[in-house]
Amino acid sequence: MSTANQTSKPLEQYIHLLQEKKNIILQGAPGTGKTYTTASLAVRLGNPDFSELEDHTKVMEEYERLRKEGQIAFCTFHQSMDYEDFVEGVKPELQGEHITYNVEAGIFKQICKQARTTEEKDIIACIDDYLQKIRGYKNRREIPTISGKSKLLIWWEEGNKTISTRSTLSQITKGEQHSASPLNIEKVKARAIGEGVENNWPSYARAFIKAVKDEYHLEDEASTKPHILIIDEINRCNISRIFGELITLLEADKRTGSKIHPITVTLPYSKDSFSVPSNLYIIGTMNTTDRSTGSIDYAVRRRFAFITLKTDPEVIKTCIKDDKVRTKALAIFKQINGDGADDKASFIATHQAGDFDLEDLKVGHSYFIAETQEALQMKMCYEVIPLLREYIKDGILQGKKEDEKYFAAWAKGECLNPITSETSEATSDSEA
Questions:
Q1: What's the rounded Cα separation, in Å, for the pair 335 and 332?
Q2: pLDDT > 70? residue 118
Q3: Cα 380 to Cα 367: distance, rounded to the nearest angstrom
Q4: Which helix (H) or strand (E) holds 23?
Q5: Within 10 A of 50 (CB to CB), how many other CB atoms are there?
Q6: Which of 129, 151, 198, 393 has its CA 20 to 30 A from that of 189?
Q7: pLDDT at 219
Q8: At 208, phi and psi to the nearest 5?
Q9: What is the dihedral of CA 95, 99, 103, 108, to 10 degrees?
Q10: CATH superfamily of 3-85+222-308
Q11: What are phi and psi of 157, to 5 degrees?
Q12: Residue-by-residue DSSP string for 50-100
C-alpha cells in the first residue's frame, strides 16, 4: 500500500467524523503532526476536489488560498483571551479628540458571518428587492418588533434615503403617512452585514432586517460551502468562558439549517440575533502533556470529538531520503520512545512518572525528521533534549543519574549503548 493511501484512509475517517460532529480536537504529544493534519483536514474539507494530500507544499499552498478567500480562519487560544476577543466586545476608538466605543466582531462571529453568506441570496440584494415590495404607503407592511410585543408599519418612498417606520401603537398627529422613526438605508445595510449600526432606531433596524431574512428565508439557507475555524492550543484557556452562551450553539442539531433544534440567541453587546451555521466546522488542537492550564470541562467535551495522534516511525521512514540519516534517526527514536507500545525498556518508559499515559510522554516523530546528520544533531541539541529536560524538571519524567550520557550521545546524532559505556568506565577505573 502506498504512503498516500495510508495517509488518506485515516484522514477520510476524520473528515467523516468532522462532518457529522462539526467540532473535533486533535490531541497528542508534541511533534505528532497535529498542525499538518489540521491543515490537511481543512484543505480536504474546504476543497473536496483537492487530491494531492501527500504533497506538503501543495497542501500548504491550497491552505493559504482557502484562508485568503475566507474559507479558513486560524486563531490561538491563550490565557488572557476572552469572550470579547473571540465573539464580540466593545472597543474604544480615538476620533480626533474624542473617544468613541464601538461593538467589534471577534474571529468567531466573523467566520460565522462569512459561512452564512450565500452567492444566490445576498442580504444587501434582498434588502433592495424588499424595498421595491414596500414601495409607497399603499404597499406598507406590518412586521413584529424584536420583542414580539408590538408591531411596526414599514414602507419606502422611492428616492428616499430612509425607510419609513412607525409603531402601530403610536398616536397619529401629523398625517397617516408620517414616519416618526425613519431608518437610514445605508446604515441598515451596514448593520445587516455586521459592518456598522443604525444608531437612531437600532431596535427598529433589527426588526426590519429580521423581516427581510424571514421574507427570503436567509436564516434557513446557510451556504453549503464549508468554512473551517482552526483553534490552536484550545486547552490553554477557559473555553466555556470564551464561548459563553454560544457553547450550546456548537452542537450539530442546534445550528442554523438543522431541522431538529435550531437555536438563535441575542448577543449581549450588539443585540444582534446570532446562530452558528451548519457549514462551519471547528478543529482544535491540544498537547496532552500541557497541564499548565485548566482542563476541558465535560460541557465542552460533549460538543467535541477527540482524535489522538500517536508517534509513528513510519513517517520518519517515509520522509528521510538519506539511508544513513534515516537509520540513525530511527535508532534514536526507538531508544527514546520504544519499539512498539509494549516496549518497557525505552527512555520514556523507564523514566515515566505521575499519571501521564506512556503515549502522551513520547517525543513526536516530527522532531526526528532531518535531511542531514548535522540537521539531526541540531534537532537533538535544541529541540528533543531541552524538551526532555523540561519534562524532568516538571516531574512529568523522573530524572536518573545516567541521563546526561543519553543526552551527550543523542547530541552527536548517535544512540547510547549502555553496555559499551559501562565497559568503558570499568576499564578506565581499573587502569587508574
A1: 5
A2: no
A3: 8
A4: strand 23-28
A5: 17
A6: 151
A7: 63
A8: -65, -45
A9: 80
A10: P-loop containing nucleotide triphosphate hydrolases (3.40.50.300)
A11: -90, 125
A12: ---TT-HHHHHHHHHHHHHTTSEEEEE--TT--HHHHTEEEEEEEETTEEE
Task: Give the C-alpha distances (Å, rounded to integers) separating 386 from 35, 380, 383, 389.
Answer: 21, 8, 6, 5
Confidence class for position 425, pLDDT limits 50, 70, 90: very low
- Model's pTM, two decimal places? 0.72
pLDDT at 111 over 50: yes
- What is the rounded distance in angstroms from the CA atom of residue 254 to the CA atom of residue 50? 30
Top pLDDT among 189 and 117 is at: 189
Neighbour-count burial for 390-399, b at 16+ CB within 10 Å, e otherwise: ebbeeebbee
pLDDT of residue 300: 82
Q: Residue 364 has what pLDDT?
A: 94
**Total residue length of the chain:** 432
Q: For the segment 37-55, what is each residue's pLDDT rounded down to a tens digit?
A: 999 999 999 998 888 888 8
Q: Which of 341, 348, 324, 339 is nearest to 406 (CA)?
A: 348
Quick check: 420 pLDDT over 70?
no
Unique residue bearing C-alpha cell 478567500 = 69
Where are the alpha helices (H) located in 263-414, listed in sequence order?
Answer: 298-301, 313-319, 323-337, 347-351, 358-361, 373-379, 385-393, 403-411
- Given this model, what pLDDT does residue 9 score? 73
Question: What is the C-alpha to C-alpha distance for residues 305 and 170, in angstroms, rounded to an integer?
Answer: 53
DSSP assigned state of 248 = G
Phi, psi dihedrals of residue 244, rounded to the nearest 5°: 60, -135
